[in-house]
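Lab notebook, bench 4. Still working through the backlog of constructs that have no structural model yet. Next entry is a single chain of 116 residues. Request: give me the structure tokens for it.
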Amino acid sequence: MAINLDHLLIQIVISTIVISPCLWLAGKALVGKKAKLTDAIWIVILGTAVGAIFGAYFYGILAAIVQLILWLLIVKHFFDTGWLKALAISIIAIVIFAVVIAVLAVIGFGIWALFS
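Model written out:
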């Protein structure tokens, strides 16, 4: 299966803009000064690229588990932490992302209701 490079580039750019700040905040909360925004950006770029390439050739639950392990390996490497802390950083980043999306949705619905 071929990989569409335009789609991959757009996916990397959008993922970097959206996920990097959440990952950085989670890393700051758990590892302190070792977590840098540039590291979070590299984690998202590499994680998205490796996940897309791996996902293009492998399917199923085994592929999902391998992608999760690769993502945790990248977080572990860049934030210089252990496996459990890398997992905790990833989970907290997901929670931060969900909260931000919920707040933005409430603000958006409020603005929509105001003007309708």
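Notes after review: The chain has one domain: 5-115. The mean pLDDT is 89. Flag for follow-up if needed.
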